[in-house]
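## retry 2 of 3
previous attempt timed out at serialization; input unchanged, resubmitting
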Amino acid sequence: MGTKSAVRPRAGSDPEEGREGGGGRFGRMARSPLGWMLTGMVGVGVVAGVTATGPGPVPVVGAVAAVAVYWYVMRRVARRATPEIARSGAGREALFGGAIGLGFILLSALLITAFGGYSFAWAGDGVMSVLWTTIALQIGAAVTEELVFRGLALQALEQLWGSRAAIVITSLFFGVAHLGAEGANAWSGLAIALEAGALLGAAFLWRRSIWFVVGLHFAWNTTEQLLGIPVSGHAPEGLFTVDVHGPALLTGGGFGLEASIMPVLIGVAIAATMLVRAHRNGDVKPRRRAGR
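## retry succeeded, writing output
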């Protein structure tokens, strides 16, 4: 699926991980994986809460601020390097991930349409306004969510219990996090965990680049919104409107495409391929032995 980025770090290559330092008991707690994970989640979460639905470029400004918060927590609290947000190769990784995300959603929508589930009509008004609003909103969402779930949670849990457990736990939490959306139910939560949590987690393990998973996530959500398909239960203003026909298992119902069986099957297949490649490259970390 592409040549690996030259800046992608090898598993376990972090020169600062585990460095001892002062600060007493609180400092030691903050530097533990769960400590810096929770600290970073609070920081990035506050930024996202303030900027996510702001007007104009506010979500993009929030994304930049969230990256700065992430960098500070990782370097100053966790005391580890941050090759996953390296600027070198960031554009290439984001474009590569974006191509996969675009293809994933277009293929899923095409199959649903072919089976009679969707029909599209051109919305026709405010093209540039819709484009800019969608791009800004989805940049903010993709960056902040990936910093929280893959940058912080997956890496912290991976350090504690290995890559496999980290993907399972973060995938389940990613599904649970979407249960509050319109039209959500137990199936949509499971679908999100399988097709999004597992896929984005596998993508991070394979490339070890936040920019790769941000590109994938951004292209996924942006394509859905522009097609007029609800994005995880949120009805968007897109370039098209969509009429939904047939069973919810095919169409996703009111929750949107993510609750359709089509992207679940495709997403699991792509995730499995990425995990195989990550394992071959030595980037699937085993659970640490007690006392290590």
